Amino acid sequence: MRRGERDRMRIGELARRAGVSTRSLRYYEQRGLLQAHRDTNGYRRYDAESVDTVARIRELLATGLSTDDIRDLLPCAQGGPGLNPCALSCSTMERQMGQLDAEIAELTRRRVALGAYAQVMRERRAQDEALAALALRSA
Fold first, then answer.
1. What is the b/e burial string over 49-69, where b = at least 16 CB atoms within 10 angstroms of the residue's CB?
2. What are the distances in angstroms from CA 71 to CA 12, 14, 43, 77, 119?
């Protein structure tokens, strides 16, 4: 085994260092977010930089970005936290914020509609209770 190959870690070690499951690592690899080298016996081996890559993937997933967007953005994520402000990263973030704004507006509209239904139900319930009380008194 060459020196570079010896410095690579197995999937369990990467999972432990990165604080994620091996299943997540396999998924990231399947989606093209993480690259593994294969031993002759088929075991996955990862470079030390993979710990930082997994941390970056997790950060970007927490923003709500899709794995497709993250795969495209990972080249912009070199050299420390955050993303380099390239045209792709800036446009992706703007697009994502626009989508969130639209979702927030839709949720607000639905919240108002639901509140109106709830108000009508409270009013009807109060009317029903008043009618029931009146009927009991007159009986």
1. ebbbbbbbbeebbeeebebeb
2. 23, 19, 23, 10, 46
Which stretches of the chain drop beneath a pLDDT of 70? 1-6, 79-81
- Contact assessment for residue 59 and residue 65, using Cβ atoms and an 8 Å cutoff: no
User: Could you give the strand order of the β-sheet that contains 37-38, starting from the edge strand earlier in sequence?
Assistant: 9-10, 44-46, 37-38
Q: Which pLDDT score, from 0 to 100, does residue 136 have?
A: 86
Q: Which amino acid appears at position 100 of this protein?
A: L
DSSP single-letter state for residue 33: S
Q: Find how far residue 42's CA is from the centre of its chain.
A: 30
Give Cβ neighbours of residue 44 (< 8 Å, ≥ 6 apart): 10, 11, 25, 29, 36, 37, 38
Residue 53 and residue 34 in contact, taking contact as beta carbons nearer than 8 Å: yes
- Count CB atoms within 10 A of the CB of residue 27: 15
Joined tokens for residue 6 = 């010896």
